[in-house]
Amino acid sequence: MARVTCAVSSRRRRKRILKRAKGFVGDRKNHLRLSKDAVMKALAFNYRDRKNNKRNFRRLWQIRINVASRTNGISYSRLIDGLTKAKCEINRKMLADMAIRDPASFTHIATTAKEALAG
Predict the structure, then answer these.
(1) How buried is 109 (Cβ within 10 angstroms: 0-12 exposed, 13-18 middle, 19+ buried)?
(2) Burial 53-79 (b: 16+ CB within 10 A, else e)
(3) At residue 87, what are phi and psi to the nearest 5 degrees?
(4) How far apart are CA 56 and CA 82, in angstroms?
């Protein structure tokens, strides 16, 4: 009886790993054992950094809003509190975008927040 080698499935498995290692540097792109470790580590970093990306962008938006709000004479925390009291449901991403691209409308929003805090 002929020996079973499982050639199709093992070749498919190797090709899948080497395909994911495309673009890696050195032996990590074409040696199976090194590629397997590199791909596993890359996938772990990919998962981790998708979460970190969200954190980093939120921090960036907060910094941008803080700078723009201080030029309008109000701190970041007071601005957010005023917008909450004014029932203005605009998110930080949009606020940061307005602070950079449209300072006039951001000034209008800052005055709305100040009025809500005063009244």
Answers:
(1) buried
(2) eeeeeeeebbebbbebbeebebebeeb
(3) 55, 40
(4) 24
Listing DSSP states for 34-100 in one string gives HHHHHHHHHHHHHHHHHHHHHHHHHHHHHHHHHHHHHHTT--HHHHHHHHHHTT----HHHHHHHHH
Q: Tell me which residue has tokens 């962008």.
A: 57
78, 113 contact by CB (below 8 A): yes
pLDDT score recorded for residue 2: 80
* Position 4 confidence tier, pLDDT thresholds 50, 70, 90: confident
The CATH T-level fold of domain 17-118 is c-terminal domain of poly(a) binding protein (1.10.1900)
pLDDT tens digit string along 36-90? 999 999 999 999 999 999 999 999 999 999 999 999 999 999 999 999 999 999 9
Domain boundaries, the chain: 17-118
